């Protein structure tokens, strides 16, 4: 499950049952629990679910299918975007995201990044080959697993960062006519594990990165890329994506952990601070409300013992804590 909300009106989650759920955010203290206000069923695993800036639409990507823009009020598909490889087979969108202006869609696949114009559904307006060919060691190899953009106030809208499952991080400037990258880290913190999350800091000078089965979140200074500035320890013992977020004041780095905790790292003091919220299961992702001091978090993972019991008894088995929760973090914000 991954929480996504760009305008604060709705909250989107995608989960292992191939359902995109939309929750309308209601600030009511007496409301303890609710189900999804809208559910969109998919035939395949949902790779990404990103809300469109300032509107009730969402971007949804699935395996071997076009990217779709879904109306989050009705569930109707508004537009489709697709790209093909050299053999005319449709490319799977392993990552997809709107840029900060919301007029372009960036799709990451195997050693390719395709750019679509939102107002022109169909085929991409540009393709960036992240590596010259399969034998070359130049560029960014492997599956492009995540894409992020700096804030509009900090940097140009033509610059973005990408991570790949080969363990590399790259920064691109689409104003260049060539496919040459601007900056690259070949080996994430020396472990070489696949990158699952990248995020610019609000000021645009730093990039935070997380990887598969890596117990650290790396922090890189774009002005001095010889080595990471620092790294923050978290528990991550799974191949699943484990997301994190930096608050709007660039004070805290917030991340889930494998043991069910949500940790707050003080970026000024470079240490772990309190409070820490706890789940009963793996915390997969966190998301901040853009205007209100609220934190959304999701938990849950596949349990092997539950799968065995499900096959033997041919009935559903509840195991772990698969839930979406919203936390009040006004106490932390007031301390800034």
Automatic annotation (TrEMBL):
It comes from the Eukaryota. Gene3D superfamilies: YVTN repeat-like/Quinoprotein amine dehydrogenase (2.130.10.10). Coiled coil: none annotated. Pfam families: WD40. InterPro entries: SWT21/TCAB1_mRNA_Telomere, WD40/YVTN_repeat-like_dom_sf, WD40_repeat_dom_sf, WD40_rpt. This is Uncharacterized protein.
């Amino acid at each position: 499950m991954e929480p996504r909300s760009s305008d604060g009106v709705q909250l989107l989650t995608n989960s292992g049952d191939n359902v995109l759920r939309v929750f309308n955010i209601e600030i009511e203290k007496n409301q303890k629990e609710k189900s999804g206000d809208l559910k969109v069923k998919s035939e395949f695993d949902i790779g990404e679910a990103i809300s469109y800036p300032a509107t009730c639409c969402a971007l949804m990507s699935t395996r071997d299918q076009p990217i779709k823009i879904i109306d989050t009020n009705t569930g109707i598909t508004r537009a489709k975007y697709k790209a093909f490889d050299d053999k005319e087979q449709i490319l799977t969108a392993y990552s997809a995201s709107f840029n900060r202006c919301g007029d372009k869609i960036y799709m990451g696949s195997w050693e390719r990044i395709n750019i679509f114009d939102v107002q022109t559904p169909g085929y991409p307006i540009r393709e960036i080959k992240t590596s010259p060919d399969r034998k070359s060691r130049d560029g960014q190899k492997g599956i492009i697993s995540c894409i992020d953009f700096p804030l509009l106030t900090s940097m140009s809208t033509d610059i973005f960062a990408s991570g790949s499952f080969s363990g590399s991080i790259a920064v691109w400037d689409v104003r260049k006519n060539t496919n040459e990258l601007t900056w690259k880290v070949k080996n994430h913190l020396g472990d070489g594990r696949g990158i699952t999350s990248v995020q610019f800091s609000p000021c645009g000078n730093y990039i935070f990165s997380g990887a598969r089965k890596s117990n650290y979140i790396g922090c890189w200074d774009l002005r001095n890329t010889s080595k990471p500035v620092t790294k923050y320890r978290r528990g991550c013992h799974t191949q699943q994506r484990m997301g994190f977020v930096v608050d709007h004041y660039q004070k805290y780095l917030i991340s889930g952990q494998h043991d069910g905790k949500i940790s707050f790292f003080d970026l000024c003091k470079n240490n772990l601070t309190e409070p820490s919220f706890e789940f009963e299961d793996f915390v997969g992702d966190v998301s901040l409300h853009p205007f209100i001091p609220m934190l959304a978090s999701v938990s849950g993972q596949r349990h092997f013992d539950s799968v065995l019991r499900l096959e033997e008894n041919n009935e559903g088995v509840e195991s772990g804590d698969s839930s979406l929760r919203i936390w009040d973090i006004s106490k932390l914000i007031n301390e800034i």
